[in-house]
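tokens incoming
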């Protein structure tokens, strides 16, 4: 499949699937993103107190866009208190050349040139009832203020969430909107991320998902890494060609890694990484981190919508004797 065709497939499905713009995405079934203050303990579930998310806006969209954050404050409802509320956190929106193509930004750490490109807008939040359980809106932005990366779907914006100080956990959600005061989809837009930090459900019957897409037929294997999973159940890979392969999950305050081989039928399809909680342990407030890389250490994009839809396992036809 050539690049242009891949992109077509890509955009086609992105346009078709509704609810492409909330992060966490609707099909991910993840309640909230999490970032901790810069003085936090890593055993609360954030390895380095930042989160980097990318939003892709198609070239065909020329009207202004807005990036909205639900519960950006660190206090009141929705958040994780450790001692007194004392956390400051900065949300920065970046665009322009190098903002989203920069490898440091894609690695999802506060190292090197993670803040590359032009800073379009930023705001720091702390314990502030004005923003508690409410939406804050960044923008308007002209779509062309993003970095033009046609292979990533059009104009790309980078959101860097940085835990400046303090020890509490900020739980929040994002939405790319065509309106300032409401969540309205930008047709054909979607989000992706290379390192993802979030809160699992407390309800042990809820299954959360992430959806990488295998866009390269030279992919040999995927290395998955997860942090501070607290042995909360299992993480498994499901795809068009596999019913479920188990990955290694981490315990408290450390990374665990495991590899799985990519099969031929999985090229140009999404994988469904399923996170099934431990039914008896009933672990609450479980914050976790996950990242996927190929055999060359390149991070895989995790998409807010599964490209091509949620993959359904189709058993191979077996030969039946006459
Ligand atoms: Ca709050
Ligand atoms: Ca919050
Ligand atoms: Ca945890």
């Amino acid at each position: 499949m050539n690049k242009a065709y891949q992109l077509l497939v890509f955009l086609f499905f992105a346009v078709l699937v509704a609810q492409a713009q909330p992060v966490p995405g609707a099909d991910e079934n993840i309640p909230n993103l999490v970032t901790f203050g810069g003085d936090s303990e890593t055993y609360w579930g954030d390895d380095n107190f930042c989160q980097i998310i990318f939003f892709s806006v198609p070239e065909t969209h020329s009207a202004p866009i807005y990036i909205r954050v639900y519960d950006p404050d660190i206090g009141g409802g929705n958040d994780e208190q450790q001692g007194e509320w004392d956390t400051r956190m900065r949300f920065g929106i970046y665009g322009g050349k190098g903002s989203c193509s920069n490898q440091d930004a894609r690695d999802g750490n506060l190292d090197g040139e993670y803040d590359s490109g032009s800073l379009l807008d930023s705001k720091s939040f702390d314990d502030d009832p004005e923003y508690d359980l409410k939406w804050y809106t960044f923008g308007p932005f002209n779509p062309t203020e993003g970095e033009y990366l046609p292979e990533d779907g059009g104009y790309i914006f980078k959101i860097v969430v940085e835990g400046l100080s303090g020890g509490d956990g900020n739980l929040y959600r994002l939405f790319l909107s065509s309106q300032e005061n409401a969540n309205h989809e930008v047709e054909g837009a979607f989000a992706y991320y290379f390192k993802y930090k979030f809160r699992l459900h407390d309800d042990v019957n809820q299954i959360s998902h992430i959806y990488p897409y295998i866009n390269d037929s030279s992919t040999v294997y995927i290395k998955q890494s997860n942090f501070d999973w607290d042995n909360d159940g299992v993480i498994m890979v499901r795809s068009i060609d596999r019913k479920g392969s188990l990955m290694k999950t981490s315990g408290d305050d450390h990374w665990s890694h495991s590899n799985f081989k990519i099969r031929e039928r999985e090229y140009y399809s999404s994988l469904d990484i399923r996170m099934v909680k431990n039914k008896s342990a009933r672990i609450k407030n479980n914050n976790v981190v996950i990242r996927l890389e190929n055999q060359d250490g390149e991070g895989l994009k995790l998409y807010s919508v599964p490209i091509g839809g949620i993959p359904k396992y189709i058993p191979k036809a077996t030969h039946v004797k006459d």
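note: Residues 101 and 211 are 21 Å apart (CA to CA).
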